[in-house]
Write a structure and sequence with these properties.
Elements lengths: L1 H50 L4 H20 L2 H20 L3 E4 L6 H6 L9 E12 L2 E17 L5 E17 L8 E4 L9 E2 L4 H6 L1 E4 L2 H7 L2 H13 L5 E5 L2 E7 L16 H15 L1 H4 L11
Helix pairs in contact: 1-2, 1-3, 3-8
Length: 306
């Protein structure tokens, strides 16, 4: 993989150099805008200070606000840079690693699909999905997207004052692939989670049982799906990702939730686009995601759809 990345990086150097030039231009624009805005803020602070009898606190406050505005005017340029980065760099990496894949940064996996996976006990109050990757590897179609789903919680203290907080339900990648079987039931693999009212599937693999709990409304089908080989493959896959995966078999698809707190495929206005560290991180995660189909042997067609 190291050699593959070095070859990729060399081929992308011209595009990265152009993007670096654009980054410096955007940063200069942000600096100019920020300087003007911060200067106006400081002038207003001086005016208010003079009008309030030399109360220097106003000048300090205006300087702090001006500094915040200055950095914000530069930081906001990261959005435009990220758009170019996704179009010109991430898309190129994806195409190189999987010619049958497409990358649509502004699209994602629907909230209904997320909720319908059965992997989460609550529905999100705030939901965002982006960076949709779709395509086919071998004979297996797949979708993958970043998802951030949150639950709204409102608490009230003894004085009757309310406080709203947002708690993550899930943040990371959602990977959906065709399993090439029409399921009669619904089978879900959780992380050592007790589910009341659901039927637990007992499996003969102590290591797998130590990491996962399987529930299904069709015990026979669940055992056909989660074979000894599949258990070993899921354990190996789990070790490759920083988060703890969960898996669902729904509507002829295998759905894998991969927790990841990092915001992937983003560019920073503050960092050189020629820095290969960030690019290598994105290359590695794309290789891992695209490798799931081979990791789980999904192109090995054991069943035929009914």
């Amino acid at each position: 993989m190291e050699q593959d990345f070095c070859t990729l990086y060399e081929s992308l150097k011209p595009a990265l150099a152009q993007l670096e030039t654009r980054r410096l231009e955007l940063k200069a624009q942000g600096t100019k805008n920020g300087s003007i805005a911060a200067g106006i803020c400081c002038l207003l602070g001086i005016a208010v200070t003079l009008c309030t009898g030399m109360n220097w606190a106003w000048l300090l406050v205006s300087a702090i606000i001006g500094g915040i505005i200055f950095f914000y005017c530069i930081q906001i340029k990261s959005g435009e840079l990220t758009s170019l980065y996704k179009q010109n760099i991430i898309s190129a990496i994806l195409t190189r690693q999987c010619s049958g894949a497409t990358f649509e940064p502004d699209k994602g996996i629907s909230e209904n699909t997320f909720v319908g996976s059965g992997l989460f006990a609550v529905s999100p109050d705030r939901y965002h999905s982006e960076d949709l990757i779709s395509g086919k590897i071998g004979t297996t179609s797949f979708l993958c997207s970043e998802i951030h789903a949150e639950e709204k919680r409102v608490t009230t203290n003894g004085k009757g004052q309310t406080r709203t907080t947002w708690v993550d339900i899930f943040k990371g990648f959602f990977f959906i692939a065709d399993f090439h079987k029409d399921f009669k039931g619904q089978t879900t693999i959780y992380r050592n989670k007790l589910r009341f009212g659901e039927q637990r599937v007992k499996l003969e693999n102590p290591e797998f049982e130590n990491s996962f709990d399987v529930y299904s409304d069709n015990q026979i089908e669940a055992r056909y799906l989660i074979t000894p080989g599949m258990m070993e493959r899921l354990l190996d896959l789990d070790r490759k990702f920083p988060g703890k995966i969960t898996v669902s078999f729904r509507n002829s698809n295998v759905i894998i939730a991969i927790p990841d707190s990092t915001d992937h495929f983003e560019a920073s206005i503050w960092q050189s686009m020629l820095n290969d560290g960030n690019l290598k991180r994105e290359f590695n995660i794309l290789c891992l995601l695209l490798g799931i189909i081979d990791d789980l042997s999904l192109n090995l067609r054991i069943w035929s759809k009914e």
